[in-house]
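To the wet lab folks,

You asked to see what we're planning to order before we commit. Fair enough. Below is the target structure as tokens, and below that is the sequence we designed to fit it. If anything looks off to you, flag it before the synthesis order goes out.
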């Protein structure tokens, strides 16, 4: 693996693609996980005596050009405090200005380029943009696992201009090593917990996991499609009617592969999508009209817990309820606690996907988990067995 770990970057200008697409509310960063996880790479390069030029995206600009509400300025200010040194920055998109700033960098200095998606060619993998970016540094480091599934100029195309000087950052290396551990040599029993709202976004992941896992737990909104396909009443719960046959086929596939498939056996429902709605307990997943499933019931939480605690490898992707509402966070909190307990007993645990990471952070058990992925879509595509462009570009 082309890691920065055993390379000395003294005197080099290291061009580093990071994923700092973090949640911001009223100018304040509300979850700095992706920034914190990139710090070891930045600190390694600086300790070698390199200067560091960071590239990152934020949001999905639509106008083309600078959009003040999507500027990386709040991230730059936050990073400066975290590394205890100023981060040079310009909101200019003119490469003459950016190159002038880069040329002034000395050993131990850090700068960041404004939101790379302000450049229209970025998301198209434009070669001319990649070439201009490459002229800023002596080497290229990709540490943006969260964007590794994008074949963009700064995540993939740029690597062509550094045939002998392209590397994985420490975050990327950690992601690849841990995900490969899940997919190639998991200790048994291996339990996958798949939640979230839609089957359609997780079909390929489930198909790819079924030959590997011993237990598959399905919760959250997607479980109501399974419930309805089996004849249960689900009231006003979220459901993909066109995926009911897919749900039945997955149940059959799991059975044929000897995988234990666990679905909710009771549900907490609400009469509105709100934290303050009326709550009804629905045994046997029998939800009347006017009510929608919002969380796993107590029996379901206990069932899932028993399976998790007997596991040696655990993958968790997707919450099992509307955990953003305190009233309906018990199911997801129970999963978090069980995964943490199993890890404490020696299991290897991996948590990934934006909502899952938010849930584990909110639960207070994040430091008990073996590995937390910084990638949402990237992690899913890796688990689907796809080759990620950002990884392939470094390996080639």
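Sequence we intend to order:
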């Amino acid at each position: 693996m082309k890691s920065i770990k055993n390379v000395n970057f003294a005197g080099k200008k290291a061009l580093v693609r990071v994923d700092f697409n973090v949640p911001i509310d009223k100018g304040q960063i509300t979850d700095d996980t992706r920034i914190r996880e990139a710090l070891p790479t930045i600190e390694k390069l600086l300790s070698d005596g390199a200067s560091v030029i960071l590239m990152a995206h934020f949001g999905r600009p639509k106008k083309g050009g600078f959009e003040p509400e999507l500027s990386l300025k709040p991230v730059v200010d936050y990073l400066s405090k975290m590394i205890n040194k100023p981060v040079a920055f310009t909101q200019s998109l003119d490469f003459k200005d950016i190159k002038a700033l880069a040329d002034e960098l000395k050993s131990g200095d850090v700068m960041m380029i404004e939101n790379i998606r302000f450049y229209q060619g970025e998301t198209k993998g434009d070669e001319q943009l990649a070439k201009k970016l490459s002229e800023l540094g002596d080497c290229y480091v990709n540490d943006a696992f969260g964007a590794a599934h994008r074949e963009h100029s700064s995540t993939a195309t740029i690597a062509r201009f550094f045939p002998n000087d392209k590397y994985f950052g420490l975050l990327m290396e950690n992601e690849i090593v841990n995900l490969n551990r899940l997919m190639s040599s998991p200790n048994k029993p291996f339990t996958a917990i798949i939640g979230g709202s839609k089957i359609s976004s997780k079909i390929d992941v489930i198909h790819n996991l079924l030959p590997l896992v011993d237990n598959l737990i399905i919760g959250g909104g997607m479980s109501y499609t399974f419930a309805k396909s089996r004849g249960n009443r689900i009231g006003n719960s979220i459901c993909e009617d066109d995926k009911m046959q897919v749900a039945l086929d997955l149940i059959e596939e799991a059975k044929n592969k000897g995988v234990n498939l666990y679905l909710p056996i009771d549900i907490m429902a609400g009469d509105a999508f709100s934290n303050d709605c009326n709550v009804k307990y629905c045994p046997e997943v029998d939800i009347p009209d006017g009510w929608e499933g919002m969380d796993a019931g107590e029996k379901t939480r206990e069932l899932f817990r028993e399976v998790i605690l007997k596991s040696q490898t655990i993958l968790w992707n997707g919450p099992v309820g509307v955990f953003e509402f305190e009233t309906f966070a018990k199911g997801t909190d129970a999963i978090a606690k069980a995964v943490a307990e199993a890890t404490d007993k020696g299991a290897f645990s991996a948590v990934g996907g934006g909502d899952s990471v938010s849930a584990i952070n909110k639960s207070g058990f994040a430091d008990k988990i073996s590995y937390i992925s910084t990638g949402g879509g990237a992690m899913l595509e890796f688990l689907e067995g796809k080759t990620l462009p950002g990884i392939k570009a470094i390996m080639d």
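Structural context that might help your review: The chain has a mean pLDDT of 95. The longest strand covers residues 13-17.

Thanks,
Computational group
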